[in-house]
Amino acid sequence: MLLYPTYRSTDFEVHRNWLAITHSLPISEWYYDVTSEWTLDYPPFFAYFEKVLSIPAYFIDPRIVDLKNLNYDAWSVVAYQRTTVIITELVLGAVLVRFIRNSVDTPSQRIVSASLFLHPGFLIVDHIHFQYNGFMFGILLWSILMAREGRKLASGIIFAVLLNFKHIYMYLAPAYFVFLLRSFCISPSGQVQIKNFLSLANAVIAVFLLSLGPFVLLGQVPQLLSRLFPFTRGLNHAYWPPNFWALVTAADRVLLRYITRTGANVVVNVAGVSSTSRGLVGDTIFAVVPTVLPIHTFAITIGFQTIILVKLWMNPTYKSFLTALTLCGYASFLFGWHVHEKAVLLVLVPLSLLAAERQAYFRTYILASVAGIFSLFPLIFTPAESVVKIIYSAIWLAFIYKSLSHQVYEFPKSLSYVFIDTFEKLYLLGFPILLAFVSLFPLVVQHRSTSSACTTSQNPAECQEPNPSANASRLEQMEFLPLMLTSVYCALGLVWGFCRLTFIYMKNESTYQGQMNRI
Amino acid sequence: MESLNPNQQPFPSSKTTSRSQTSPHGHSPTRPRLNLKSDPQPHASPEILAPTPRRHLLESSESQHWLRTPPLSPSSSRGVSPVSLFSSASLERRIRTTSYYSTRPSSASLRSLFDSDKARELTGNGRKHEASEKQGVEMSMGRMWVRWMHKRNMKGWVAPALVAISTLLKWCIGLGSYSGEATPPLFGDYEAQRHWMELTVHLHTSQWYTYDLEYWGLDYPPLTAYVSWICGKIGYWINPAWVALDASRGIETSESKVFMRATVLAWDLLIYVPALLMFVKTWQASRSNRTQNLSLLTLLFQPALLLIDFGHFQYNSVMLGLTILALNFFAQGQDVLGAVCFVFSLGFKQMSLYYAPAIGSYLLSKCIYLGPKAGWRLFVRLAIVTTASFVLLFLPFLPPFAPFEAILQPIKRIFPFARGLFEDKVANFWCASNVVFKWKRWASTAVLVKLSTVFTLLAFLPGVFILIRTAIKTSVGATSDTSVSVDSTHSPTLPLLPYALLTSAMSFFLFSFQVHEKTILLPLLPLTLLLCGAPAGSAMFGWGVLVNNIAVFSMWPLLKRDGLGLQYIVTVLLWNKLIGYDPRRLPSKSFVQLLSFAVYGAAGLLHLAEFILPVPSRYPDIFPVLNVLITTPVFILAWLWSIKNGIEVGWALGGLGQARKATSTAPAPAPARTGNSLTEATVRRGVTRAASLGFSNGRRRAPTASSASSSGRPGTATNMGT
């Protein structure tokens, strides 16, 4: 990949720092180190993984693993880290090839596999932004593959391993739990199969012991957990991830504006007015809408998941499991506390496996993919890389759409379907417009600002400085308008996709067109 | 070739839309066996199309013959048939495969052929897959992809997708560093181009060629200046700081870099890419859709141009694109338009003067071919139009707008004879022989200029000579036969043009004065155009890819200086992988193959040595010099090879003209006229084949008109073969 010299986010430094931590410190200090602000906050397997990576790194350039050497970005470290991402992504490739091998409908599975391997989400998040998602999702898909082939014990173990790599996969854990419990530990007639249950339980516990064991011995579990689950952070991440709360926050903003205009008699939370949640890391406080606490988000998430899991319990087949898995991830993403926008991949990846099944799934997949990938765009904001991400995503989408759409096409059944169809098309049409707006907006702002007060400054970054000019301060407020619009618009699509998928799953998931019909 | 007339398709055209795993043909394994050696009995089996009547070799495989390619490429849209697969392979292999086909139930083996990309997943068919690999089904990545797209009913999307993907690749290359990044005070080519924008936007035209010549004075013809002016205006509108006069020297903000990269990409998309699209449509009109797509792929991902334009930073694609446009218009018979395009190309960079002998003599040969009357008319028209477009280009520097001396300034800047024989280490004759014979010590600059001019003249004369001679031989005026209507749009010398271009550009590169290593792009263009239609494994393919790769290798010192090492590796590997190049697959023990092994070995060793060993202090230039010594022989051989090919093609054409005179009195038997046994498809195919040398209007012409006009053309007059 030619993306070595591209922009690197803070996550790049995060991972370099972790390499240094795991290399130069003893295991007892891994979760205590605060040399850099980017402390280790992934589970132990990932720490071991970094430890392994740091060994060759030391031979390439010892300064990579120097703990004090913050913000080191020489060519050697860049090339090394980017290469590790590419190499570890081969896990994903291998698993996807395996997926093709025993599938029922090989040609469409090949398309789906290719689409996953070349997913723009991975390009943006892994290769430009820098993370190891390709590797992780390789493990996840491996686990799903095992489930497809009926090797449920292996599936459970691999998932447990994955959980110890990155705890964000907790989102999917309920579906796994129910599926394995129902189909592996309880026979179809309803009898509990103790032997199976014990073997599964023991295996999973063994995995966790292997990972957490050293820290249990050192008595560091509370510290580890506090690193892993930082509830001190706010409802929304740095900028709003495109989920349900983004919609709520936006509604709050709109209401606030409305109230201040009309002077309606509503109690306004004063703290909320100042916290305009302009995209800074920190708490989001609502001005009008009641404040949301972590417990509320949990309740909503678990509520939705329960509905899905009940259905899964009734019908524990592979295809049902796959849908339930997607929906679990989806629910957590939409209603969870402090969700990363990157977590949208958790929804898109299992959903891809369903895409070739029926028109309804395919439609949901297209909607969710477009919205999800678009919501990842702001991660990369430098102009040079934006071109890459846009062209790449467009090519990818065109391919998926062209190659799959004619296979699964279904004629709309009734008038309501026609309406929905039209609305969805209109929604998708909105994306190019939004894209044009988002990319042109800074230019316009810049033009106005250069023409008005700040004549000396050439880029918007300097214009952000407090400026006496009223015009500039107004523009400064507008700074986050594109971001806000992006999240809200994507959130709309994603929430709609969730409703759609849930509806399909609950209503009539017995008729499959594609290969799953035969599993 | 004759006994195996590839037009006789053993199988019906099968658009295998069968994505479910049914047999692609759907007929039983009791299908009659193929016997390729014997005279085919066309009506023996129902699925063999009615044959095209046997014609002379030259007639049945026109453009393909001149371009050194078989009439049906392995990627024909008619599905892969065994015959076409092996049309390029050796005879023994054919015999072997024949026996292979006749000993196995053919539907199974066919399936493995059809789905050789799928064959891997046909579980339990490992043996079959092995067999299909043994036959040398050369599946490159690009070919597999194009095929997949066609099967998936996405034929129309191949070209747009290719353009989009190549655009993405170009942009990704552009993310890297450029020539002269962060090297004050003079920076590099990037800064030069940017400086010209600032120059043209802020100054009056009279100052363009005179302003502060020490700092990257403008030294390209006016069209470059105009292009810079347009880019500069846009840049000024977006951010005036990027092109502020003097103040912006050496500006290296990331935004300005994005803008500059975007301008290159935009011009490339505006001129070069459409020119390529048009090229495959006109020059390969008689080829299948898949072959056209593959050629486009080969051309779009050519690494040398990608690296220089989008990595190093130059606008070569504009000049090359204009030249290709000129070639396209020539192929369509619109010589005047083509001449204008070529003048524009000359007006963009004087480097396309390298092509001028070939293009000039082609146009002259066309005039000769047309005979005294029509020829003179064309000549005069060309002369007027060419002069007019030159005048148009230089208009701001000519008397009504500027004093008379003003014209001298651009010319002085464009042809810098004051500089030395060569600057850097260039893989040409002078630099290579300089190792043993110190030219600069032996002769003054003036003598060297004359010497190099004489050498260059001698070097490109063969190409020119062949063109003119063929034209005289085939000239319409040379025969007194007036009964045949003269096809005034097509000149028989057209197939010679790419070879002549290669000869002349290569001779300039090797022998002329003041050559840059980047100028290798000019000989590469006709070579790649020739290469793109050739099937993998042919000698043409071998030569084309070898010279391309070695050309990129010859630019390695330059690319290394620019910090483009990664891009160098990636693009070269990607391109070779895409087009499925493997020197081991070339005709065994042929000269090309041995040469390729030797040269790649040497190049690899040099890379390794450079990576491991420190530069010896006594010879600081040892690696570039060795590079030159490796690459120059390859270029000289390529030059000789182009002359040889030109002579061969010219000989065939000229000889045919002679023969035609002898037989012209005989009534020309009409081709493709066996009555009801012809199917519609055969007629259509016959027509496309019969179109003169595969050029444009083969598709458009109606069958009857085609047979009439094609019989009038010298190359296809009679079917002497049978």
UniProtKB/TrEMBL annotation, chain A:
UniProt entry keywords in alphabetical sequence: Endoplasmic reticulum, Glycosyltransferase, Membrane, Transferase, Transmembrane, Transmembrane helix
Primary localization: endoplasmic reticulum
Recorded metabolic or biological pathway in which this protein acts: Protein modification; protein glycosylation
GO terms, biological process: protein N-linked glycosylation
Tree of life domain: Eukaryota
Membrane found in the keyword field: yes
Protein family (similarity comment): Belongs to the ALG6/ALG8 glucosyltransferase family.
Protein name per UniProt: Alpha-1,3-glucosyltransferase
Species of origin: Pleurotus eryngii
UniProtKB/TrEMBL annotation, chain B:
This protein's pathway: Protein modification; protein glycosylation
InterPro entries tied to this protein: Glyco_trans_ALG6/ALG8
Record's GO cellular component terms: endoplasmic reticulum membrane
Low complexity biased stretches: 74-83, 703-722
A single GO molecular function term of this UniProt record: dolichyl pyrophosphate Man9GlcNAc2 alpha-1,3-glucosyltransferase activity
Membrane among keywords: yes
TM ranges: 157-178, 258-280, 319-346, 378-398, 447-472, 492-513, 520-543, 563-579, 591-616, 622-641
EC number annotated for this UniProt entry: 2.4.1.-
Superkingdom of origin: Eukaryota
Region feature (Disordered): 1-83, 696-722
Polar residues bias spans: 1-25
Location of this chain's protein in the cell: Endoplasmic reticulum membrane
Membrane topology note: Multi-pass membrane protein
Pfam families the UniProt entry points to: Alg6_Alg8
Transmembrane helix in keyword set: yes
Alphabetized UniProt keyword annotations: Endoplasmic reticulum, Glycosyltransferase, Membrane, Transferase, Transmembrane, Transmembrane helix
Record-stated family: Belongs to the ALG6/ALG8 glucosyltransferase family.
UniProt protein name: Alpha-1,3-glucosyltransferase
